[in-house]
Amino acid sequence: MAFPTYRLPPDVERGMVGGPSYQNVIQEAVSGVEQRVRVWAKCRGEWDISYAVLDRGETSGTFRAIVAMFRAHFGNLYPFPFKDWGDFQLENEFLGVGDGSERTFQITKTYDPSQILLSTPGSLTYVREIYLPRTGLVVMVNGVMQTLTTHYAISPTGEITFVSAPAVGHAIEVTGEFDVPVRFNTTKLDLTINENNIAEIGSLPIREVIGTAELA
After folding, report:
1. Exposed end of the chain (fewer CB within 10 Å): N or C?
2. Is the separation of the CB atoms in 56 and 197 below 8 Å?
3. What pTM was computed for the model?
């Protein structure tokens, strides 16, 4: 089954509430000393995209799109692309350094607070795999822009494969935008239709899926 190329209507994506989430276990002794254990190896986004008021009329593409997607995706079974307006850009993201033989590089985004706040690399960083890059990416090798199909190809899951392996010491960077693979995080769509034919969705949570296997 091909991964869908459509997304939720823009007004729904812009109206989302949520962001990145982790699952950790923190145990606190009587003395106040803590032990902290990371449960999830990777961060995942969680949002609620309920849209307060939707016109149920046939002219309302938003209402019909949500109902159609929820039914066609069997609730939380099949994922789809989502634009997280709080985090959708890549800016000169460093993907690696050429060694003269490796041709394939996964697109990633690195979060480094020390680099942002102090302009120096830090020890606490998070590297996120980008599985759904959007068209129009700018790929650079050693500061030279590469041409799609002529110099490289991009897989549907965000792998850049060069025709010729980047030379030893040549940095690979990418700039552009990306989507996030998500699924509905519920098996039930709660709708309220009032006497004025206005539809309201009380809550509609979605959750990021991790790994290329989820996109099959």
Report:
1. N
2. yes
3. 0.89
